[in-house]
């Protein structure tokens, strides 16, 4: 018999609801506290999801010995600081993506994980999706052969979330660090996490946040404010790996595109696969090309199920029953890639590792 893990959620904005709902539905977890600088927001979420305690200062929350683990759902510029403080206070951590803003911060978080011996899981939620884990079985069995190319795109024609997301001090960047992190990570994970060799990237600030556009809804930060916007609105990059494989990526908060687009495609010498927008496997048999559609409940990314799987895996890793699928080392590698792309764009040349 394991006792249920006592959970607090720090940051009670938009994404926290999916964390809170997943914990509330998990019989191995018990929600005990919610923290946000904005007390009314923390209180509202605590009441809605049945947590008894409300905090406005995460340091006070971390001093509570009746909390075993925390989800960090705050602005990107606070991820490293809160993760390190939580680990040093003896709590397990599920930190939302990106792990932090810089490689230097990521290394400090990695050190804190080592010295605390606690679990830190990076919120690479797409790794936990059913379609990813199905494809993973095919890849591990060699169905795609040697994977040498992947292509990731996440194009919003209108979708700068405003507020802290568009303030580079708080976010670390625009669509590359916010959306690119998901699609680059899922390709890298499915490619078998090859070591990155170089990156060449571009960032553009051509369209602004287009807060003038009407009659088209999009994801917004809890404190939506369009007045400050100093992040890129489009970025692309080519990432080279030491094993010779490459990954092309393109992401936008806004672009004059016909429609929003998400695509994650992986190509090997025996077969290919798409995981976004929907799982498909491409192969060859008896001199004929086959497009294979797995017969599963959800071919696309199911947000609620993805978070529920991610949180179930976190809880079970904290209980010592599993190893996290998205450890701090992977968060650090992703920061190297993302920061490398920003550096390459600023210098106008390839960055080698
Ligand atoms: N995995 C995903 O698909 C996904 C989706 C959306 C957002 N996110 C990530 O989740 C995080 C939060 O995003 P969001 O959309 O919920 O933002 P949000 O602005 O809606 O909410 C963030 C909340 O954090 C609070 N906060 C900030 N600093 C704090 C601090 N020091 N102490 C206490 N509270 C603090 C703010 O008051 C706010 O309520 C970001 O890192 C974002 O990248 C992940």
UniProtKB/TrEMBL annotation:
<dbReference type="InterPro" id="IPR004104">
    <property type="entry name" value="Gfo/Idh/MocA-like_OxRdtase_C"/>
</dbReference>
<dbReference type="InterPro" id="IPR000683">
    <property type="entry name" value="Gfo/Idh/MocA-like_OxRdtase_N"/>
</dbReference>
<dbReference type="Pfam" id="PF01408">
    <property type="entry name" value="GFO_IDH_MocA"/>
</dbReference>
<feature type="domain" description="Gfo/Idh/MocA-like oxidoreductase C-terminal">
    <location>
        <begin position="136"/>
        <end position="352"/>
    </location>
</feature>
<dbReference type="InterPro" id="IPR052515">
    <property type="entry name" value="Gfo/Idh/MocA_Oxidoreductase"/>
</dbReference>
<dbReference type="InterPro" id="IPR036291">
    <property type="entry name" value="NAD(P)-bd_dom_sf"/>
</dbReference>
<dbReference type="Pfam" id="PF02894">
    <property type="entry name" value="GFO_IDH_MocA_C"/>
</dbReference>
<comment type="similarity">
    <text>Belongs to the Gfo/Idh/MocA family.</text>
</comment>
<feature type="domain" description="Gfo/Idh/MocA-like oxidoreductase N-terminal">
    <location>
        <begin position="5"/>
        <end position="124"/>
    </location>
</feature>
<protein>
    <submittedName>
        <fullName>Gfo/Idh/MocA family protein</fullName>
    </submittedName>
</protein>
């Amino acid at each position: 018999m394991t006792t249920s893990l006592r959970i607090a959620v720090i940051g009670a904005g938009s994404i926290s609801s999916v964390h809170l709902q997943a914990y509330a539905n998990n019989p191995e977890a018990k929600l005990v506290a919610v923290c946000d600088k904005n007390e009314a927001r923390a209180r509202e979420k605590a009441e809605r999801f049945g947590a008894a305690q409300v905090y406005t200062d995460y340091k006070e929350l971390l001093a509570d010995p009746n909390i075993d683990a925390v989800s960090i759902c705050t602005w990107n510029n606070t991820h490293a600081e809160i993760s390190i403080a939580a680990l040093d206070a003896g709590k397990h951590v599920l930190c939302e993506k990106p792990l932090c803003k810089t490689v230097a911060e990521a290394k400090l978080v990695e050190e804190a994980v080592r010295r605390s011996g606690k679990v830190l899981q990076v919120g690479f939620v797409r790794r936990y999706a059913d379609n990813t884990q199905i494809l993973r079985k095919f890849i591990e069995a060699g169905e795609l052969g040697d994977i040498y190319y992947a292509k990731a795109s996440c194009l919003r024609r209108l979708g700068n979330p405003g507020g802290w997301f568009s303030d580079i001090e708080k976010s670390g960047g625009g669509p590359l660090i916010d959306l690119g992190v998901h699609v680059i990570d899922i390709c890298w994970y499915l490619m078998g996490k090859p070591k990155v060799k170089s990156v060449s990237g571009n960032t553009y600030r051509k369209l602004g946040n287009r807060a003038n556009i009407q009659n088209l809804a999009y994801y917004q930060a809890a404190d939506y404010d369009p007045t400050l916007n100093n992040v890129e609105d489009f970025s692309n990059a080519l990432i080279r790996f030491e094993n010779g494989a490459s990954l092309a990526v393109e992401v936008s908060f806004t672009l004059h595109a016909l429609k929003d687009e998400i695509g994650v495609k992986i190509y090997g010498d025996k077969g290919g696969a798409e995981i976004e927008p929907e799982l498909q496997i491409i192969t060859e048999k008896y001199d004929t090309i086959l497009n294979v559609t797995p017969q599963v409940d959800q071919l696309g990314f199911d947000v609620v199920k993805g978070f529920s799987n991610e949180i179930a895996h976190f809880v079970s890793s904290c209980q010592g029953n599993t190893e996290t699928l998205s450890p701090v080392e992977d968060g650090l590698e992703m920061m190297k890639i993302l920061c490398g792309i920003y550096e390459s764009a600023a210098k106008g040349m390839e960055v080698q590792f």
